[in-house]
């Protein structure tokens, strides 16, 4: 496997992290996971726009366009002969002697390499089991930051409980998102999802879904909902680049609907499959 390191390609075995890289020491960096389907990027420009947003918010001095990230990612796909899969891309504030303040001169480190992503067809057919978990993360979840300790601890909690995703809540009346996904509910034929504010990551798949709902004339509301509303919903599903759309069939051992993937969720999934070759959100 060839890995992109700043502007050059190196063999996977030669790709090492400097012990003083701030991404490694402080989680001082941002990332993207981008899908590539059947020889084509899925929503690449939208991911690159969000990457620039995360960089700007984190005050990491890196310009995605000036550094030709898109062209390098195309090279990465070509060098690794990827037909179907994805790419992991991260940019840290770079290497500097350990000290909390930003270094005077930032020299960000970029790495990108292929991910062997597979379509999650079994989960999409059967639906997934989930738990709820207190959202104890920081209050800038809109930045796609490398600091994922809260997310990984909570994902593990879900797995330990025999589930595959955890749905975060700040308090009883405020459900936010999943440990690595955004959350949607269907209530009386209307989709509901959390506003794109500092409490959640504004998922590219979430935005894709809202566009799709517009196209299909499925009404939606962008609003905060409670744990009670979540568990009483007619349908629940989660979205992400790797999960695509996954129906949720139980939450904390309580069945959602009749315990099988819902009708609106399945309709959205079918359209997702048809749309896999779209390259940009409108
Ligand atoms: N996770 N919320 C969180 C906390 C996430 O980590 C993710 C994505 C999403 C969905 O974002 P998008 O639709 O842009 O993938 C929401 C990625 C895939 C990951 O960390 O692997």
From TrEMBL:
Residue ranges the record marks as coiled coil: none
Recorded catalytic activity of this chain's protein: D-alanine + 2-oxoglutarate = D-glutamate + pyruvate
Keyword tRNA-binding: no
Keywords: Aminotransferase, Pyridoxal phosphate, Transferase
Origin superkingdom: Bacteria
Known EC number: 2.6.1.21
Cofactor: pyridoxal 5'-phosphate
Signal peptide as annotated in the record: none
InterPro entries on file: Aminotrans_IV, Aminotrans_IV_CS, Aminotransferase-like, BCAT-like_C, BCAT-like_N, Class-IV_PLP-Dep_Aminotrnsfr, D_amino_transT
GO MF, one annotated term: D-alanine-2-oxoglutarate aminotransferase activity
PANTHER family, A to Z: AMINO-ACID AMINOTRANSFERASE (PTHR42743), D-ALANINE AMINOTRANSFERASE (PTHR42743:SF10)
Family note: Belongs to the class-IV pyridoxal-phosphate-dependent aminotransferase family.
NCBIfam families to which the protein is assigned, alphabetical: D_amino_aminoT (TIGR01121)
Biological function: Acts on the D-isomers of alanine, leucine, aspartate, glutamate, aminobutyrate, norvaline and asparagine. The enzyme transfers an amino group from a substrate D-amino acid to the pyridoxal phosphate cofactor to form pyridoxamine and an alpha-keto acid in the first half-reaction.
Subunit structure and binding partners: Homodimer.
Protein name, entry field: D-alanine aminotransferase
Organism: Alkalibacillus flavidus
């Amino acid at each position: 496997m060839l890995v992109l390191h700043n502007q050059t390609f190196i063999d996977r075995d030669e790709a090492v992290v400097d012990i003083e890289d701030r991404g490694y020491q402080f989680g001082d960096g941002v990332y993207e996971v981008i899908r590539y389907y059947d020889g084509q990027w899925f929503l690449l420009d939208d991911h690159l726009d969000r990457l620039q947003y995360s960089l700007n918010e984190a005050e990491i001095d890196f310009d995605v366009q000036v550094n030709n990230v898109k062209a390098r990612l195309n090279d990465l796909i070509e060098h690794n002969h990827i037909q179907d899969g994805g790419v992991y891309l991260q940019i840290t504030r770079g290497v500097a002697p350990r000290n909390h303040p930003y270094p005077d001169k930032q020299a960000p480190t970029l790495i990108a390499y292929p991910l062997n992503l597979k379509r999650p067809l079994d989960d999409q057919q059967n639906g997934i089991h989930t738990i709820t978990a207190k959202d104890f993360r920081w209050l800038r979840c809109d930045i796609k930051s490398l600091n994922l300790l809260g997310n990984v601890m909570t994902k593990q909690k879900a797995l330990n409980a025999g589930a595959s995703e955890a749905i975060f809540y700040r308090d009883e009346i405020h459900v936010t998102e999943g440990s690595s996904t955004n959350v949607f509910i269907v209530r009386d034929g209307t989709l509901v999802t959390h506003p794109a504010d500092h409490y959640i990551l504004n998922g590219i798949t979430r935005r894709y879904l809202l566009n799709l709902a517009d196209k299909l004339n499925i009404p939606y509301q962008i609003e905060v909902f409670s744990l009670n509303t979540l568990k009483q919903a007619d349908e629940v599903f989660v979205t992400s680049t790797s999960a695509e759309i996954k129906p949720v069939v139980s939450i904390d051992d309580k069945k959602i609907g009749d315990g099988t993937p819902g009708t609106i969720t399945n309709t959205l999934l079918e359209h997702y499959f048809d749309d896999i070759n779209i390259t940009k959100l409108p």
